[in-house]
Backbone:
């Protein structure tokens, strides 16, 4: 996958002192850091420490070109390393816990991290594309995604939109989302194809794949 | 605008909507204060000091014995090395004891993710106590009268 040029630009702006660019970087990748910590089953205080350490290290590394060129990968490996360090330190003090309980073997980690990076990039791109949609589209799609699901009648009333227009509007809004330049980076690799299969499986609810 | 390729186009509306749902949920799971803490880390951007990097950590390098460490058993021992000096830290019990080598009087500023949380005085022998032990990631900035200005890497105890 290509690096998203907007991310490289954000890193450059943050390096030059732009706090807002930094904030966008954090907002974009906090879910990635959070989800990796979740995989290691750390407690909340440890997750906060790891998260903070990762961002503090990134602040130190902003001038490092190799980091900005591969930011998601750097964040993922740094988060993983910090999580492991916390676990190692905890284990040293708590001799009752056997090392490695419930943890992944080191062999599994690289493949897992690759998946997490791709998923995080795709999610970030989808959120950016969503944020660029007209407000009307964002409202409609949000309502269509709400849990528990809302009936078309309720959506129609809330948005003052005839029930008959919801279907066509949904298609139009999703069409705009699909064509968003934020998703361009994914068009030349298989990630979306792979993800699409997964979503289809989960969407069907059966979970049976050939 | 660059040409949109074929792969996203292969998603049908239901798949795209499901992917969007997942993306928004992944963001929704992150507590806002977790994000805010990350944003505030930027306050430490562009600090101009000599950097001391971690060269020994007892949790990492258990098999190696640092040259200048005392014989006392400590829970955690760390060594930071810069071009001009060494800063050693030892956790024992409720306190954190540090030593600057070569010894020189000065002050140590304790920096946490969201600001300066304390200072300590470095005595003639280079020793400085830090109480209480910072609960969250922190680092130390050592100043001496001769203009020495050294910053350690981030520490979590």
Residues:
């Amino acid at each position: 996958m290509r690096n998203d040029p907007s991310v490289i630009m954000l890193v450059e702006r943050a390096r030059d002192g732009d706090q807002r660019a930094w904030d966008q970087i954090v907002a974009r990748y906090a879910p990635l850091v959070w989800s990796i910590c979740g995989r290691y089953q750390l407690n909340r205080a440890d997750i906060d420490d790891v998260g903070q350490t990762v961002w503090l290290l990134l602040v130190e590394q902003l001038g490092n070109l190799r980091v900005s060129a591969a930011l998601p990968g750097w964040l993922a490996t740094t988060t993983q390393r910090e999580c492991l360090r916390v676990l190692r330190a905890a284990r040293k003090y708590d001799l009752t816990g056997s090392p490695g309980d419930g943890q992944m073997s080191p062999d599994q980690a690289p493949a897992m991290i690759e998946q997490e990076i791709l998923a995080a990039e795709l999610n970030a791109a989808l959120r950016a594309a969503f944020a660029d949609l007209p407000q009307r589209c964002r409202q409609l799609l949000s309502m269509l995604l709400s849990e528990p699901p809302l009936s078309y009648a309720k959506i129609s009333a809330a948005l003052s939109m005839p029930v008959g227009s919801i279907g066509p509007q949904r298609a139009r809004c999703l069409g705009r989302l699909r064509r968003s330049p934020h998703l361009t980076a994914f068009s030349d690799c298989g990630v979306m194809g792979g993800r699409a299969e997964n979503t289809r499986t989960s969407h069907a609810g059966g979970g049976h794949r050939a | 605008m660059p040409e949109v390729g074929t792969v996203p186009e292969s998603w049908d509306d239901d798949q795209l909507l499901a992917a969007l749902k997942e993306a928004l949920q992944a963001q929704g799971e992150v507590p806002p204060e977790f994000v805010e803490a990350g944003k505030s880390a930027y306050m430490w951007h562009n600090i101009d000091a000599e950097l001391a990097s971690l060269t020994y950590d007892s949790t990492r390098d258990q098999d190696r014995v640092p040259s200048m460490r005392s014989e006392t058993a400590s829970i955690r021992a760390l060594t930071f090395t810069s071009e001009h000096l060494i800063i050693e830290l030892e956790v024992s019990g409720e306190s954190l004891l540090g030593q600057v080598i070569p010894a020189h009087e000065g002050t140590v500023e304790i920096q946490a993710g969201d600001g300066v949380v304390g200072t300590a005085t470095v005595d003639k022998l280079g020793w400085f106590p830090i109480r209480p032990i910072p609960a969250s990631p922190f680092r130390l900035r050592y100043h001496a009268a001769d203009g020495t200005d050294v910053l350690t890497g981030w520490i979590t105890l």
In short: Confidence is low (pLDDT under 50) at residues 1-7, 67-72 of chain B. The CA atoms of residues 77 and 90 of chain B lie 4 Å apart.
